User: Fold this.
Amino acid sequence: MKDKDAGNPPTPDWALKYRKDYHAYSKGWFIALILLIPAGLVVGALVSGKYTWKEGLGSGIFFAVILLLLMLNMFRNMDKSWKGRVVAKSTKDIYGTRTAGRRKKRVFLKTAYRVEVRTDAGRKEVVEVHKGAFPLFQEGDELIKYKGLPFPDRMLHPGETMRMCLVCGHPFDAGASECPSCRFKYGDTSLNSVST
Ligand SMILES: [Zn+2]
Assistant:
C-alpha cells in the first residue's frame, strides 16, 4: 500500500475484479475505435474527395486523443478512494450551445444531481448521482468510495430498505443480491452497508 492510500478504505477483492474487467473492456473499445475512426475518415476522404486523406487522418488522431483523455479521466475518478460524510445537496441545470445558422442557441442538456462530501481527510468531493437515488441522500450520511468503482457506497440507516448501486448509481432494494438496472451481482461482495 502506497503512502497516499493511507487512511483510505481498503479495496475489496470484488471491486478489484470489477476494475480489472472494466479496464480490459474499455481498452478493447478504445483500441477498436482508434483503429476504426482514422481508417473511416481516410476512406471517407478517398471516396468523397471533399477533404484530403491527410486531413482525415489528422481529425482521426484528434478524436483518438480526446477519447484517450476521456477514458483516462474516467479511470482516475473510479480510482479515487475515500470515506466521508454528506455536507450538502444541490441540483444544477446544465446548458450547452447549439449553432443554428448564424445564431448560437442555449439549449438545456440535463439537470445534475450533486451530493457534496467532506472526506475524513478534509477534502471536498462532489458526487453526481442519478435522479432516482438523489432523495436517498441526507446531510450527515456516511459514504465510502472504493477504488475501482464508479459510485460510493452509502451506509444505510437502521431500517432503511433502499440503497444505491455502486456500479450504475441506480437505487435498489437493499435486500436484493443483484442490481435490477445493471445486473451487477452483490451476492459475494460481503458489503456491510449499515451505518453505525
Ligand atoms: Zn446497478
Summary: The pocket of zinc ion is lined by residues 165, 167-168, 170, 179, 181-182, 184 (CB under 6 Å).
